[in-house]
Amino acid sequence: MVNYIEASTAPPKNTGAIRLYDAEAFEGMRRACQLTARCLDALADIVKPGLLTDEIDRFVFDFGMDHGAYPATLNYRGYTKSTCTSINHVVCHGIPNDKPLRDGDIVNIDVTFVLDGWHGDSSRMYPVGVVKRAAERLLEVTYESLMRGIGAVRPGARTGAIGAAIQTYAEAERCSVVRDFCGHGVGRLFHDTPNILHYGRANEGPELREGMIFTIEPMINLGKPHVKVLSDGWTAVTRDRSLSAQYEHTVGVTSDGCEIFTLSPGGLDRPGLPSHNG
Questions:
Q1: In sequence order, which residues have a C-beta less than 8 Å from that of residue 274 and are 6 or more positions away?
Q2: What is the mean pLDDT of the segment spanning 250-258?
Q3: What is the pLDDT of residues 91-126, one digit of tens each?
Q4: What pLDDT, on a 0 to 100 scale, did the predictor assign at position 278?
Q5: Are the beta carbons of 221 and 176 closer than 8 angstroms?
Q6: Percent of the chain scored above 70 by pLDDT?
Q7: Cα 106–107–112 angle (5° rounding)?
């Protein structure tokens, strides 16, 4: 049994109920998410061979501080960085360090800022220098998977429709969908109900209702979908060491579809790739 609750009356913790947010909350999310999007836009100018992922982390921290926001990942469950930087076969939760980016790498940068209590959560892939066609194609397939998942969001549909749209497309492109991680409710809380699976059947999962806010963030692999988490307790990698990619948006369900809160103001939702009309 799925319970829905007006967010304004919900307790400040994940109770398993799905929060329904009002217009004022949507405005708060727009501000937080657009700050995150602007940071991701700015990163497009600095990601290049030789850049340390620790330098990316410092950039994100400083950007947040300069705009009155705090990185949600910093000290979250013991995580000590302001962002996640996941390179090549790292699926997600890569920890910034003193390792430089290399020509031909692909890196996912995941940023969540807390602004006035609202969480703006998004990530993008960045090609480093000149990448191989296989890597570029993976980025194209992953971004299109995200947009097809977003295209399935509307009141009355089920969360499974999002996963079905992603899985159907990605597997038709001979890629695989990671099962171990998923999208999630977001708003006043960093991670909330419901979970948004990136695979599944259209008639499964909770019903989407106007006012829901959540992330969609498919992780797509060139090889098999299986992953493992390294001994640091965070870094997830593909078991077969195949390339992995991820794009993420935060969306809110509207009366006739959804609003993408984290769209790039500079048209850089796919930095380093040709513009996309999706």
A1: none
A2: 98
A3: 999 999 999 999 999 999 999 999 999 999 999 999
A4: 42
A5: yes
A6: 99
A7: 155
Cα–Cα distance for residue pair 194/3, rounded to 1 Å: 10
CA 241, chain centre distance (Å): 21
Sign of CA dihedral 255, 259, 261, 265: negative
> Helix (H, G, I), strand (E, B), or coil: what is residue 137?
helix
Dihedrals phi, psi of 52, to nearest 5 degrees: -80, 140
Amino acid in position 242: S
Distance between CA atoms of 197 and 24, rounded to whole angstroms? 28
pTM passes above 0.85: yes
Give the Cα separation of 214 and 196 in Å (integer): 8
CB atoms within 10 A of CB 15: 13
Tallying the residues shown for the chain, one arrives at 278
Contact 60, 83 (CB under 8 A): yes
Q: Which two tokens stand for residue 143?
A: 């971004």
Tell me the H-state helices in 102-191: 133-151, 159-172
- The C-alpha atoms of residue 134 and residue 84 are separated, in whole angstroms, by 23
d(CA 127, CA 255): 36
Q: Alpha-carbon torsion 145, 181, 241, 59, what sign?
A: positive
250 touches 122 (CB < 8 A) = yes
Each residue of 162-186: pLDDT tens digit? 999 999 999 999 999 999 999 999 9
The helix, strand and coil proportions of the chain, stated in percent and rounded to the nearest 5, come to 25, 25, 45
Cα 239 to Cα 32, 44, 82, 102: the distances in Å are: 35, 29, 26, 22
Which residues are registered as beta bridge partners of 18?
Answer: 4
Spell out a b/e string for 36-48, using b for 16 or more CB atoms within 10 Å of the CB, else e.
bbbbbbebeeebe
Structure-block tokens of residue 171: 């597997």
